[in-house]
């Protein structure tokens, strides 16, 4: 009885204040559950969108679509009557994100009932109505001589966009086309100081494999006027280019998964194992970067900044955990954890 009386107070004694509290581990577990739920919902929502984008990219590539911009351009019989007519196809073949320039291939042919007259096609990169630029908008010309029956030329025009937002970057170009007299010839009758463009049939297509071009739209009337009558085009179209949806979804999911993995490792892994795995985690982050940045513009992008933030989270997380251990148990406790793998 004496022994039981001596043991009983020890069993009923309250826990010591130095005993570790289970709350941090429970909080970590709930944080892991919440992170896993967010990742799972993201996968369920975005993977079907990415698969649909891949199927569209394979079955209906963006380079297969041709947009007819001129009334009657599809009526080939009307162009075979011997009247003067010029058919021009404008193909967007490249976008230089760093220089913010689009390369256009101008190709086509002309037919004349008699002697062909020389003329010039002016391609203008129209600016927004609220732009603060000084002077006339950027332009490029295609000269067609009297003896030319085939047209084949490459021109460059500026595009608007932010390459640093890759893979969510978008580029736009408001393209205006006007037929003007050739150098050294007198203007013919027409509006806005240019020749009539009713005999010029235009078509547009995209030859870009890295971008999807939205269907061309008609720009606002304010966007096709300027101080020079020759630049007041009567044929204008607004173009927009964006990355495929599957690339955006893939980039977002991979970065999200890497961020979740790093957070879980920093919170749950023992300090000794965490210090050992820091190198492999860093290599994993930059290995993922090599996947995501294939075909990216040569600038600092959102993917670079996000993955750099992941590395910083890893480093700061390790530093904070070591500081907490030093604050609670000093160097002896830190040495014990590193030695025993706790």
Describe the structure.
The protein is α+β, with helices and mostly antiparallel strands. The chain folds into two domains: 25-51 and 246-340, no CATH class; 62-242, no CATH class. It contains five helices and eleven strands, in the order ααβββββββββββααα. Strands 4, 5, 7, 8, 10 and 11 form a six-stranded antiparallel beta sheet that branches. Strands 1-9-2-3-6 form a five-stranded mixed beta sheet, with no helix packed on it. A hairpin with an 8-residue loop joins β7 and β8. α2 runs antiparallel to α3 (245-268) and α3 (245-268) packs parallel to α5. The two termini are 42 Å apart. Mean pLDDT is 76; it is low at 1-23, 74-81 and 186-194.
> Number of DSSP strands?
11
What general outline do the C-alpha atoms trace? elongated
Distance from N terminus to C terminus (CA atoms, Å) equals 42 Å
Helicity, as a percent range: 25-40%
pLDDT averaged residue by residue = 76
Summarize the structure.
The chain is 39% helix and 23% strand.
Main attributes?
5-stranded mixed sheet; 23% strand; alpha+beta; disordered N terminus
Strand and helix map with partners:
Blueprint: H1 2-12, H2 23-59, E1 66-68, E2 85-96, E3 101-111, E4 119-126, E5 139-144, E6 150-158, E7 160-161, E8 170-181, E9 200-206, E10 212-213, E11 235-242, H3 245-268, H4 271-292, H5 302-340
């Amino acid at each position: 009885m004496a022994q039981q009386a001596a043991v009983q107070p020890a069993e009923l004694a309250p826990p010591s204040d130095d005993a570790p509290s289970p709350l941090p581990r429970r909080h970590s577990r709930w944080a892991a559950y919440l992170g896993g739920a967010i990742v799972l919902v993201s996968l369920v929502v975005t993977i079907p969108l990415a698969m649909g984008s891949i199927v569209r990219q394979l079955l209906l590539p963006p380079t297969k679509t041709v947009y007819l911009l001129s009334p009657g351009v599809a009526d080939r019989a009307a162009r075979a009557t011997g009247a003067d007519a010029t058919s021009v196809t404008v193909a967007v073949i490249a976008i230089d994100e760093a220089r913010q320039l689009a390369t256009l291939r101008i190709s086509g042919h002309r037919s004349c009932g008699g002697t062909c007259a020389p003329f010039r096609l002016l391609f203008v990169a129209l600016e927004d109505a609220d732009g603060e630029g000084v002077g006339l908008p950027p332009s490029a010309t295609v000269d067609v001589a009297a003896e030319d029956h085939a047209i084949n030329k490459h021109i460059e025009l500026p595009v608007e966009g932010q390459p640093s937002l890759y893979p969510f970057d978008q580029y736009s170009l408001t393209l205006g086309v006007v037929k003007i007299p050739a150098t050294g010839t007198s203007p013919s009758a027409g509006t806005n100081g240019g020749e009539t463009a009713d005999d010029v049939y235009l078509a547009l297509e995209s030859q870009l494999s890295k971008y999807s071009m939205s269907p061309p739209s008609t720009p606002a009337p304010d966007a096709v006027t300027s101080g020079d009558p020759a630049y007041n085009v009567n044929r204008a179209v607004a173009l927009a280019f964006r990355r495929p949806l599957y690339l955006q979804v893939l980039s977002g999911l991979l970065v999200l998964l890497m961020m979740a993995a790093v957070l879980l490792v920093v919170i749950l892994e023992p300090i000794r194992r965490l210090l050992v795995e820091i190198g492999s985690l860093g290599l994993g982050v930059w290995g993922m970067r090599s996947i995501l940045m294939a075909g990216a513009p040569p600038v600092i992008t959102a993917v670079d900044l996000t993955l750099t933030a992941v590395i910083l989270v890893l480093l700061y997380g390790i530093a904070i955990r070591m500081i907490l251990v030093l604050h609670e148990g000093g160097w002896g406790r830190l040495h014990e954890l590193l030695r025993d793998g706790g």
